[in-house]
Amino acid sequence: YIERDLPFLGLNATPALLRKFWTMLAGYHGGILNASSLSSALDISAPTVRKYIYFLENAFLIRTLPPFFVNFNKRLVKAPKIYIRDSGVLHFLRHISSFESLENNVLIGSSWEGYVLEQIIQLLPTRIQHYYYRTQAGTECDLILAKGDTVVAAIEIKYSSAPEVTKGFIISIQDLSPQNAFIVTPFSDDFLIRENIRVCNLVDFITIHLPKLIS
Predict the structure, then answer these.
(1) pLDDT digits over 24-43, tens only?
(2) In Å, how far are 17, 141, 181, 195, 197 from 67, measured between CA atoms?
(3) For 63-77, what is each residue's pLDDT tens digit?
(4) Would you tell me how many other CB atoms lie within 10 Å of the CB of residue 215?
(5) Global pTM?
(6) Helix (H) and strand (E) counts for the chain?
(7) Residues in contact with 212: Cβ distance below 8 Å, sequence separation at least 6, in sequence order
(8) Are 46 and 36 in contact, with CB atoms under 8 Å apart?
(9) Which helix (H) or strand (E) holds 129?
(10) Concatenated DSSP letters for 167-179?
């Protein structure tokens, strides 16, 4: 598909270059897209990198998550984050062949983050936009659901059964004033960890809380 079909549709690159590009994107999974770094590593221009990103995103192979920013008096990161949309493809590209090897790999947190994003974003109506939030000082929230400038939910994604509320998430909540705040995990019970922050597992979030947020 990448080496034959996309070039047929206009993605002008050699199969070897596309394989290298695709593998490098797996290394960026869950991180901030740096087109200049990719262009330097691949010896192509930054506009060419963005063109390849455009093709792969419109082919539903990758997802770029835009930053959320309004008129805060803070320096905000304005580059998108990037994810391989299929977790199985991501694990293959990172040479992870079993769940046991995934559990012992530093990738597990970002892999879980990308998986959760996909499950949530695919259920959103068009009136709800999705972003991430990050300041230059490092304050970050993994997923923002918004109606225009109104933040419906701030969501932190943690691969943990006993997550803690991080200072960065607290500052994000103070900055954004979301109507709701969640920490989404694989296995947790559903409970308030603080007065305005709810911990829940992904299934409960999708089946119980998300329908209320988007109604």
Answers:
(1) 999 999 999 998 999 999 99
(2) 28, 10, 18, 27, 22
(3) 999 999 875 667 778
(4) 6
(5) 0.93
(6) 10, 9
(7) none
(8) yes
(9) strand 129-134
(10) HHHHHHHHHH--S
